[in-house]
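The records we work with from here on pair a chain with its fold. Taken together, the tokens spell out the fold as the letters spell out the chain. To see the layout at work, look at the sequence and tokens printed below.
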Amino acid sequence: MTLMDKQRFLVCYDYGMGGLWAFIYARSSEDILGKYPELFIATEQPAWMDENKMADIESRESHDIDGEPFGVLRVVIEERGHD
């Protein structure tokens, strides 16, 4: 399955003092929450997030659910060990 076969989801990891935003390409929201239950899946673009911010997030934090985690997803995994 390639990225073209997946949907793009806007997600946020709330770390308590703010949120880290990313896009994840996945088969479904359930696919994301099964692997990263700590994430919030946005159902719409937040009002404060303009097109420039969306493009910035897309360029830095676009993830394939089946790929190697980096950025926001690496933070989520690392934080699991601190619970």
Notes: The helical segments are 29-35, 51-60, 71-80.
